[in-house]
Amino acid sequence: MCLGVPGRVVDIDPSDEFRYGVVEFAGLRRKVCLACVPEAQAGDYVIVHAGVAISRIDADEARRLLDQLAAEDAGEGEIT
pTM for this one? Predict the structure, then answer.
């Protein structure tokens, strides 16, 4: 199973030819390739899979997904 995780774009490196940026996930910041979402700007939310942002989402959807992931991590969304 693959998992895409929502994160907020904090910064974009304009000098990088493959368009990398820093994306924040619950306080952790990671370098992420933004080549697949050329419209993404600092402050936007993106779905990241394997270090690559694969789509842009709005803040409400990102919050909903993060809440759902937190609930599953707490055992509330266990599959039986």
Answer: 0.84
